[in-house]
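2024-03-11 09:14:02 DEBUG pipeline.ingest accepted 1 chain
2024-03-11 09:14:02 DEBUG pipeline.ingest length=306
2024-03-11 09:14:03 DEBUG pipeline.predict start
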Amino acid sequence: MAIQWFPGHMTSARKKAEETMEFTDMVIEVLDARVPEASHNPMIEELRLYRQRPSLKILNKADLADPIVTQAWLNHFNRQDGVKAVALSCKKPGDAKKVPGLCRALAPHRGTNLKPLRMMIMGIPNVGKSTLMNALLNRRIAKVGDEPAVTKSQQRFELSPQLSITDTPGMMWPKIQYDSDGYMLAASHAIGRNAVIDEEVAEFLAGILLQRYPDLLQARYKTDVGNMDAIDLLQTVGKRRGYLLKGGELDMEKTAMALLVDYRSGALGRISLETPDSRAEMVAQAAAAQLDNAQEPDEPTDDPRR
């Protein structure tokens, strides 16, 4: 099942962001370090490139991501024009305090009393924009929640006479192009639960974990996962946790949430769901499949009009 999620308020959020971009010097795009490209909103790129604004890409939640993979993503993004990428944990005040200096380096012509540097924080829901805002201002001004799309409107603040910052609502795009992106975003809790089936998301996540992080699974669940598939893993987790319904049937909904929470909280260890290489391979396979579908002949028919 393809996952799509575009709540109504995001249409107006995009329009407002487009208006604000004209009076912004640079964009701070907050990404989830575990899924950096999947959590990149192409509409943000479109808006900033149209206005020719530089971008500071913050790979947030870096403390939850695979550090080797994160470095590969930093190298990937830092090869792009007008982009500086850094890996941070916005929950750490010391990390957040690095952001203004990084922004000044990207827009050296701004940042004075006469020409303050005007920054704009953007990103998809639940990647940590509000956490970053609170750390930068050293007070709780942005509501932080464990559910996506907590912030619903823009807020502008003065960090100093030389720096101002605008916080924007989490913004998805109307159609997620790749099915795997939808599942990775759902697994990382960037998509509202009303748009997904937890069991399907957990099965997708289990497949990636078995392929890339079997040792972490084995350490967490104290079982050999060598010959397991995704369903086997979920059933093993559920049985070991005692998630049974009346009659002894496995509670798959509760089991799915257990695996998802273990991943989201970092209890499994430091995990990244995509790498630059896996991303390139996925996109290439999708393009090849699309080409094959376009070249398939029409089904034969007895209809004389065809």
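2024-03-11 09:14:41 DEBUG pipeline.report The chain has a mean pLDDT of 88.
2024-03-11 09:14:41 DEBUG pipeline.predict end
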